[in-house]
């Protein structure tokens, strides 16, 4: 699973976690119940249009704001395979890795793509779109381990079997 | 090479002689705070572990503050889960005592500590020289079970403060100016460190207001130099510092900013971003429907005094709901003793129990379609305070109160 291809959805800068999942829906029972309302203040129809394997391409400071961990959980539950953004807010970054949601920091690809395009990601190597390759930097090993395990709790279980 | 305050705290917590930005270290945590935003999720995950155990229960502090009193059957269930678990395991538990960060500052934080909080504004503890950082429920679970976590050592942005804030200008105006200047991710992954001659003109309430909001510039943490004011505050609350760290002469800062406090003016952050910052005068005349004085940012006695002084002998504008919410029961009782609560009520304000209230946007003072709120809360993202098509302006206690009086955005100096 070192490469995957997906259709992209394009979002702008400073997509905060109140947009990713508004407070009023946090009281819903499960992440699956909340998922239909993802991004609703900005694009109410988007959650319903996302398909398994799709990719989000965004601007700077993706995931800023509240530390609500439901934000990356819901993005993953919608079937998004990875989020590519110019930069990520730090709490969102940790929360995503902890939930096994792949994040890639890249600030060039946004100039070359538009919504609906298909791109191919070679993990820790590059993003390919329209025949062009954009190199990406790899994450530190401890984070790669967590992602490969599918999240922090799974990595904990895998690592020492104590929990 | 020397180290910054943030680097020293991490080094101490990692048990190593020195650290550099970009290093990843395993650190021992001094305190783990969690509130009713996500503790129920942590508990569910905990119970699914094969051999669940808590590394050091004394380090945990659980606080119910976001929906107090409870606003729905679902919330009642998540609160009960939290309450019962805390009782079962002997975890320090607060319900109704106030907003988590205020309760933590009043009761638990001390200089040199490394603290995780399952809430983004945990960076507030920098006011006491503690490295506080916000995490999600999974990071919290890991830290709860192991007592440790991994930390990427942040770069530090240094802010040298000089001069003194003018009358009518407050710490809230200062931090909003800084966020406006560097941008919503201008401090991304960094520690924002504050020092300089001007620091001593800022009291603890000012320092909390400043550090608290640093996450809105993307900061990993905020840290103020520890001085007599900090030590007096800690002593008054029965605490000694753990470490008192100062950045070394040859510490490396990613950037240094010289901030003249006397140049700061009353500021408003316009919808829908905390860094959409303008001189408050530019927004004067904007109609408002609701005003909120409270939150972990500006719900302390100092903020209430400012509002009370402005509104004494005046009334809340007929078309405005003015909600006043002390950040803790300690603040509330002090405000009662000083006659401040009566002043607000006489003016027609709605005074409520200590909790996150309007800032959280889900249980008190929710605003409807097209409505405008001016608030001392922490955020103004789209839909934050209620309907997705509503508008939130952020400002100081003085600007919020003046606006509540006039029914439109107003600066305090305009109230004669």
Descriptive overview:
Chain A has 163 residues and is an alpha/beta fold. Chain A contains seven helices and seven strands; from the N terminus they run βαααβαβαββββαα. Chain A has helices at residues 17-20, 31-34, 46-49, 70-77, 90-98, 141-149, 152-160; strands at 3-10, 55-58, 82-85, 102-105, 118-122, 126-129, 132-135. In chain A, β2, α4 and β3 (82-85) form a beta-alpha-beta unit. The longest helix of chain A is centred in the middle third of the chain and has 9 residues, at 90-98. In chain B, β3 (60-64), α3 (73-89) and β4 (92-95) form a beta-alpha-beta unit. Chain B contains 13 helices and 18 strands. In chain B, α6 (171-182) packs parallel to α7, α10 (301-311) packs across α12 and α10 packs parallel to α13 (397-406). Chain B has helices spanning 5-14, 39-47, 73-89, 100-107, 137-146, 171-182, 204-213, 228-236, 295-298, 301-311, 329-337, 340-347, 397-406; strands at 24-28, 31-35, 60-64, 92-95, 114-117, 131-134, 148-152, 155-162, 190-195, 221-224, 255-260, 267-269, 277-279, 290-293, 321-324, 350-351, 372-375, 391-394. At the A-B interface, α5 and α7 of A face α5 of B.
Gist of the model:
The complex is a heterodimer of chains A (163) and B (416). Chain A is an alpha/beta fold.
Record the SSE blueprint.
The complex is a heterodimer of chains A (163) and B (416).
Chain A: E1 3-10, H1 17-20, H2 31-34, H3 46-49, E2 55-58, H4 70-77, E3 82-85, H5 90-98, E4 102-105, E5 118-122, E6 126-129, E7 132-135, H6 141-149, H7 152-160
Helix pairs in contact in A: 6-7
Chain B: H1 5-14, E1 24-28, E2 31-35, H2 39-47, E3 60-64, H3 73-89, E4 92-95, H4 100-107, E5 114-117, E6 131-134, H5 137-146, E7 148-152, E8 155-162, H6 171-182, E9 190-195, H7 204-213, E10 221-224, H8 228-236, E11 255-260, E12 267-269, E13 277-279, E14 290-293, H9 295-298, H10 301-311, E15 321-324, H11 329-337, H12 340-347, E16 350-351, E17 372-375, E18 391-394, H13 397-406
Parallel strand pairs in B: 2-3, 2-5, 3-4, 5-6, 8-9, 8-11, 9-10, 14-15, 14-17, 15-16, 17-18
Antiparallel strand pairs in B: 1-7, 12-13
Helix pairs in contact in B: 2-5, 6-7, 10-12, 10-13
């Amino acid at each position: 699973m070192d490469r995957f291809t997906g259709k992209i959805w394009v979002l702008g800068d400073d997509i905060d976690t109140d947009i990713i999942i508004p407070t009023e829906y946090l009281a819903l029972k499960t992440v699956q119940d909340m998922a239909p309302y993802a991004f609703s203040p900005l694009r109410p129809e988007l959650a319903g249009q996302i398909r398994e394997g799709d990719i989000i391409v965004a601007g700077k400071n993706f995931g800023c704001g509240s530390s609500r961990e439901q934000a990356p959980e819901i993005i993953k539950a919608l079937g998004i395979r990875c989020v590519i953004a110019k930069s990520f807010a730090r709490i969102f970054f940790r929360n995503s890795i902890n939930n096994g949601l792949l994040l890639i920091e890249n600030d060039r690809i946004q100039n070359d793509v538009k919504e609906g395009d298909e791109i191919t990601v070679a993990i820790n190597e590059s993003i390919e779109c329209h025949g062009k390759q954009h190199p990406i930097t790899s994450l530190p090993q401890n984070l790669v381990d967590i992602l490969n395990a599918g999240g922090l709790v799974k990595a904990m279980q895998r690592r020492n079997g104590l929990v | 090479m020397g180290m910054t305050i943030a680097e020293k705290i991490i080094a101490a917590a990692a048990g190593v002689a020195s650290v550099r930005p970009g290093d990843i270290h395993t650190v021992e945590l001094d305190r783990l705070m969690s509130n009713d935003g996500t503790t129920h999720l942590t508990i569910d995950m905990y119970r699914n572990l094969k051999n669940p155990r808590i590394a050091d229960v004394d380090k945990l502090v659980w606080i119910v503050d976001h929906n107090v009193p409870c606003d729905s059957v679902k919330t009642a269930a998540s609160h009960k889960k939290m309450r019962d678990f805390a009782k079962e395991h002997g975890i320090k538990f607060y319900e109704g005592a106030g907003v988590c960060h205020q309760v933590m500052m009043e009761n638990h934080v001390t200089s040199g500590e490394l603290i995780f909080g399952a809430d983004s504004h945990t960076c507030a503890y920098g006011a006491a020289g503690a490295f506080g950082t916000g995490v999600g429920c999974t990071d919290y679970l890991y830290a709860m079970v192991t007592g440790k976590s991994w930390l990427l050592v942040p770069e530090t942005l240094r802010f040298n403060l000089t001069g003194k804030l003018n009358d009518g200008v407050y710490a809230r105006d200062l931090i909003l100016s800084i966020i406006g200047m560097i941008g919503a991710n201008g401090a991304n992954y960094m520690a924002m460190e504050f020092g300089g001659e001007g620091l001593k003109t800022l009291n603890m309430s000012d320092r909390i207001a400043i550090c608290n909001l640093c996450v809105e510039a993307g900061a990993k943490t905020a840290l103020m130099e520890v001085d007599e004011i900090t030590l007096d505050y800690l002593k008054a609350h029965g605490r000694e510092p753990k470490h008192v760290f100062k950045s070394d002469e040859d510490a490396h800062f990613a950037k240094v900013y010289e901030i003249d406090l006397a140049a700061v003016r009353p500021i408003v952050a316009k919808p829908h971003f905390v860094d959409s910052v303008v001189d408050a005068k530019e927004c004067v005349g904007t109609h408002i429907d609701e005003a909120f004085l409270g939150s972990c940012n500006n719900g302390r006695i100092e903020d209430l005094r400012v509002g009370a002084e402005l509104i004494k002998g005046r009334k809340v504008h007929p078309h405005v709901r003015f909600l006043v919410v002390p950040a803790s029961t300690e603040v509330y009782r002090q405000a009662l003793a000083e006659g401040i609560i009566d002043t607000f009520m006489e003016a027609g304000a709605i005074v409520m129990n200590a909790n996150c209230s309007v800032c959280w946007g889900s249980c008190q003072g929710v605003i409807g379609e097209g409505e405008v709120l001016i608030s001392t809360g922490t955020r103004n993202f789209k839909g934050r305070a209620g309907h997705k098509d509503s508008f939130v302006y952020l400002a100081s206690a003085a600007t919020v109160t003046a606006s509540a009086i006039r029914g439109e955005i107003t600066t305090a100096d305009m109230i004669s």
